[in-house]
Design goal:
The chain contains twelve helices and twelve strands. By secondary structure, it is of the alpha/beta class. The chain folds into two domains: about 200 residues, P-loop containing nucleotide triphosphate hydrolases (Rossmann fold), CATH 3.40.50.300; about 90 residues, Hypothetical Protein Yjia, Chain: A,domain 2, CATH 3.30.1220. The strands form two sheets. A seven-stranded parallel beta sheet has the order 3-2-4-1-5-6-7, sandwiched between helices. Strand 2, helix 2 and strand 3 form a beta-alpha-beta unit. The longest helix has 15 residues.
């Protein structure tokens, strides 16, 4: 019998907190380690797999649901597939959950599945909290659960807050989880040595929060049905000036309802991808990797929010397509 268990880190946190950025920072620091990555996204279309710089690391995406409920049964299957198809023994697993995922059922999957118990060891639950927005959402049950079940809380985007505000934030987080290891950071830049390899997960602590966790079906939950997710796509390149104007106008107009948007774009005359993210009215955009010669250069954006008009957003996005008469730069 193989006594070696693969350590697994669950990375959770509300929409736009910086989970994918954290995963990229960790992967960049792990050298030759062979890390299996499982990414879950809310909605039918996911792009986080494209935003993760996995290079030769194995990666599986779970879409069209939340890993903690409608596709929770797929998590065990994804881990099994990951271990079977890997080119060599996997050193560790990183699971990035949807921003709307309750971590308790995810933990239940790892702790109650006999096969996973034999093959995988939960090392820690890392919750990324957005210093600029977490208090806006702290009354949401999912956000509170994400914080309460954390072994490590990464307080991200601290550049947006004063020292007094950070102390107030930490006090609020400590009120929900006094035992978690807390890290302040900007742009999710955390040392891999501080997160990976430290066995902080404690079943006793989790059962103190959720005594029925190991009982089947004990932690089912329903999402806020007012939250919707949809994707817009374009095969033709986008005009960067038009897109910049449109996305800024959209963030200002719909920022209160627009919980999260993220996109991988093909800009006219640009050999690299362009990555764009927003959380409410805050926008971040920057160049990504170069397009591979054999991959389709398609622009895709995912929007998650309440009371959004898919038709209005889709029409505005398509209006950013570059005029076909423009000659590409050389």
């Amino acid at each position: 019998m193989n006594l070696h268990k693969i350590p697994a880190t669950i990375i959770t946190g509300f929409l736009g907190a910086g989970k994918t950025t954290l995963v990229n920072h960790l992967l960049a620091q792990c050298g030759d380690a062979y890390i299996g990555i499982i990414v879950n996204e809310f909605g039918e279309v996911g792009i986080d797999g494209e935003l993760i710089v996995a290079d030769e690391q194995p990666l599986i995406e779970i879409t069209n649901g939340c890993i903690c409920c409608t596709v929770r049964k797929d998590l065990a299957a994804a881990v099994d597939e990951m271990l079977r198809r890997a080119g060599r023994p996997i050193d560790r697993l990183i699971i990035e959950t949807s921003g709307l995922a309750d971590p308790a059922p995810v933990l239940q999957t790892f702790l109650a599945d006999p096969d996973l118990l034999q093959r995988v060891e939960l090392e820690s639950v890392v919750t990324v909290a957005d210093a600029h927005h977490v208090l806006m959402h702290v009354d949401d049950d999912i956000v509170r659960e994400q914080i309460a079940f954390a072994d490590v809380i990464v307080l991200n985007k601290t550049e947006a807050a004063s020292q007094r505000e950070l102390e107030r934030l930490e006090q609020a987080l400590r009120g929900l989880n006094p035992a978690a290891h807390l890290i302040r950071t900007q742009r999710a830049q955390v040392s891999a040595a501080e997160l990976l390899g430290a066995r902080r997960f404690s079943l006793a602590n989790v059962l103190a929060i959720e005594p029925d966790l190991l009982l089947d079906g004990a932690h089912d939950h329903e999402h806020d049905v007012s939250i919707q997710s949809f994707c817009v796509e374009a095969d033709a390149p986008l005009d960067p000036v038009r897109f910049n104007r449109w996305i800024n106008q959209t963030a200002q107009r719909d920022g209160a309802q627009l919980l999260r948007s993220k996109g991988v774009l093909h800009l006219h005359g640009e050999a690299r991808q362009f990555h764009v993210h927003s959380v409410h009215m805050l926008l971040d955009a920057r160049p990504g990797r170069r397009w591979h010669p054999d991959e389709p250069r398609r622009s895709r954006m995912v929007f998650i929010g309440r009371a959004l008009s898919a038709d209005v957003l889709r029409e505005g996005f398509l209006e950013c397509i570059a005029e076909q008469s423009v000659t590409p730069s050389t």
